[in-house]
Amino acid sequence: MRQGQTPRKRILFLDAYDSFSNNITSLLQTLLDVEVSILHIDSPLLFPSGLNSTPDEEANSRFVKELARYDAVVCGPGPGNPGNERDVGIMRFIWGLQDANVLPVLGICLGFQSLVGSCQGGKVKRLRRGLHGMVRTIIHRLDSSEPVEGDIFAGVNEFKATLYHSLCGDVGQEGIEEQTWEEMRWQPLDGCPELAPLAWVEEQREEGEGLEAGKERILMAVKHRTKPFWGVQYHPESVCTEEEGNKVIVNWFHEALRWNKEHGRAPVIDGHNLAEAAIKPSLLSQLTPAEEPRASGQWWEKFEADPVLHSVSVPLPRGIQVPDIVEAVDSEGSERIILDSANAAPATSRADVRGRYSIIAAGLDEALRLEYHTGDDYATTKLRSVGGLPVNLSQQVPIARYGSIWTLIAAFQDARHVDVEGPETTPFVGGFMGYITYEQGLMDIGICLDHPRPHHRPDVCLSWITKSIVVDHLAGVIHIQHLRSSGSEEDTWLETTTGKLLALQSNQRRSSFNSRKDIQLSQSLKKRRPSRSTSIQTPLTKEYEDKVRICQEYIAAGESYELCLTDQTSITRPISDQPLNDSISLPNHPLSPTQQRKQRRRSSTTAPTPSLILPPPSSWSLFKLLRTRQPAPFASYLRLGAATLVSASPERFLTYDRSGKCSMRPMKGTVRKSEAVSTLAQAEQILHVPKEEAENLMIVDLVRHDLHGICGAGNVTVKDLLKVEEYQSVFQMITVVEGQLPDKSRGKYTGLDALAASLPPGSMTGAPKKRSCEILKEIEGHKERSLYSGVVGYHCATGRGDWSVTIRSLFRWDDEQVTVKVEGAQEEERHEVWRIGAGGAVTILSTADGEREEMFTKLAGPLRVFGEAC
Ligand SMILES: C=C(O[C@@H]1C=C(C(=O)O)C=C[C@H]1O)C(=O)O
Ligand SMILES: NC(=O)CC[C@H](N)C(=O)O
């Protein structure tokens, strides 16, 4: 602060773990030019021994001292019920502060309900049916001829706002006769004389929505008659709340400052601040120089540091597909990472979203790998070979030295940063490629995993790729790239790989390549007999529908606004992953639940007699099949460590460029293509309805929150709100949310900050994220989602990155095998286990059979590749 300047006003935001909190703090900062600090409702800094009881004097005085530092407080929204201590925490003490400590407060949603519940006669009850992501006109006194003191709606025109609530304030409004309602609704009602209503929504209810048909009167805003407390039930920060509503916030702060002035209240500026800044510190700023890699001189700290890029480009031969390139440069059976824009060629699909680049990792044997099993206090760095010789190095790195796995990853990358001048020709020159599980995301948002976990698989598995092939489908070019440490010896990889790819080209020119492949494929289909003992276990219809209803009970109780319920299908089959060059025959349609039940009955524990001993198709064959059946912009194939993933994901999670521009693309709202719904216009008609739009909007607001937490106030925007796009077998509604990371000089933020701050993907959790994940863990029977619902992608050495949500995919772990008794065979057989996760967002408007149908629709594509031949 420069001398003579008045300090910025300060607001304390009490965060009840909502997934919209950062949107509110951003709104406050941009509208009011204030400094906002955040304190969680259960902050151990205030109440070290927990919140279950009335705070002791010491805790109370700490709280009062902290409050004294601010001009005003905002009590935020959140899951649960204000009647529960756990849900509102310290919020509930605000309303009972002694007169000398009182300060202006605005309650929003849960915070508002907490205020209503704290007043004499005020109650909180359930809405007849929750309103989540619903946009309604806020009714307030438009006639300003007789201004009411403290009316923060004065001078505001009519506006629409988004609602996210299952509960509502009860001040006795339902007892008022219809004839007197118009007039009475602006008076403090007898049921709760301390509060003056300032705004309402009147919701038309049909029969079956709670009591009889008619209007439900929903209290939208209040002012306390004697204290400087206000509250709004709607969400002023939602992207769908109209800008006119901003005036209410401005008015509130104006009233708050006026109250302070009239009461001679001035915030205390000095002293220790318990609350946190509204933006997270960057990962790199959390490292001290002594903690940076290379500090302790370990082999991995120096490995591939300070790299320089060497590259060659060759034309992409026409008709050559990504798998052809992969097969030309390495052999099946080894590790692979391929990020495949499988629908890049215009001929492959009518889809709206096409990737431009495919990225193939090479030299995985010699790539350094960073693995982390969530919950461990160490990560492991591994290196299998160097210069073609096995070295099998492995070292445990204590996480405490860095703070978290994320700071370790950020520091590792920082030591290998590559500056590219001018425009980039490829999105990836080398860097981390790999996966992150859903469970790592859970830990990142503070959800403890069940202990002991039933396995010790990595949750973060990232290989530092220095040799890569990038296919630019648009420009028709293949880039062969080697990031080499400046001091390291030259090797022949660039040369030999270029040679192999040029050979591919001449094969193509001789035009025998594709026709030969077609012949091979059809021969292998003819040769193949029904495979042995494959068994498929899909979710049970009734169980899944019951779970949808349980989700809705949680939503009706105010615990969540939307829950992305999922379940897994398992497929067991003889161990397959041998080098194979084959394919499998497929049914024309995915198996219906009835067919699947029949198949399950046929092949549960006792498998049919083996007819022909052909191993089932390898994971690579499954991938090749899936990418033609279901060409997706974010397809991928990973055989990395013990994990195998075959993905046809249509959903981008997060991408960021070198300048820190981040973009997320949450998807919500799915409709299957069929004869009845075959055009975009038809899909739009189905998806542009309140239920589907609300589902999407909730996740959009959640993703905005995730990005705001790292990009800071005013740095997040929304593009393409609720846009319907066409994919191979479905139409999906998407929205693009963009953010700009803060300037590097403010602590060197990188895309990894955005990634770490927004896992697990909001579209796979529901809102609010943390509580929804806790509930889903219960409902999904504590089964780990594992790779499904996690992310796959890259973080380039230049600072750029792209990650997809792992959905519409199949995966398996090498260590998961079952023993099966095969009829007629002497010995039991070891089988591998594949898993396919599928699900969808449940809201209060969902139907159980609709959700079950949606889950089976999403399951069908990936399941189909196992087909009848398995
Ligand atoms: C849960 C899945 O998909 C998610 C849920 C969607 C929805 O509810 O409409 C859409 C895309 C994904 O974010 C899945 O594919 O299994
Ligand atoms: N958004 C909120 O704060 C919701 C409050 C409360 N949990 C409800 O559902 O009504």
UniProtKB/TrEMBL annotation:
PROSITE patterns per UniProt: GATASE_TYPE_1
Domain Anthranilate synthase component I N-terminal: 327-476
Ranges of Low complexity composition bias in the record: 505-514
Gene3D superfamilies referenced in this protein's UniProt entry, alphabetically: 3.40.50.880, Anthranilate synthase
Biased composition (Polar residues): 574-586
Catalytic reaction(s) noted: chorismate + L-glutamine = 4-amino-4-deoxychorismate + L-glutamate
Swiss-Prot/TrEMBL GO biological process terms: 4-aminobenzoate biosynthetic process; folic acid biosynthetic process; L-tryptophan biosynthetic process
EC number: 2.6.1.85
Gene Ontology MF terms: 4-amino-4-deoxychorismate synthase activity
Segments of this protein annotated with the region Disordered: 505-539, 574-612
Gene Ontology CC terms: cytoplasm
Domain Chorismate-utilising enzyme C-terminal intervals: 617-858
Family: In the C-terminal section; belongs to the anthranilate synthase component I family.
Name of protein: aminodeoxychorismate synthase
Organism this protein belongs to: Apiosordaria backusii
